[in-house]
Amino acid sequence: MENADTVEADDNRQRSMIRTETSYNVLTQSRCALYNPRSESETETTRPSLVDLGCGPGRNTTQLLSALGTANKASSFSVIGLDVSHGTLDVARTAMRDYVTKSTAQIEIELGILDLLQPELSKTQLPSSL
Questions:
Q1: CATH class label, 4-34+43-122
Q2: Domain spans of the chain?
Q3: pTM here?
């Protein structure tokens, strides 16, 4: 169970990140340029997967999907947002229903099947077991 100071500090960090949305917009646009979608014949039978590690309120993921032309079409991608903050995941769920509440240490993902990984957590923030 989180103590009040930890929850307040987490909420303050999230508010600060939301205020710097312009910076995130620039980062998201540069990440979109790196994405190489599958051929249309492949995507006809399978949905590409997107995992956003440390998704926070989901702003980067929704902007990324919008830039890829899939805004408001969650069914276009299998989207999983991961974050340790329950409060920010509640915000993210308003835009995307596929966000789950797990820490990165509690979830196993077979990276070979992912099409796009949106890592907001730096290597120093990930558990050493990953």
A1: alpha beta
A2: 4-34+43-122
A3: 0.44
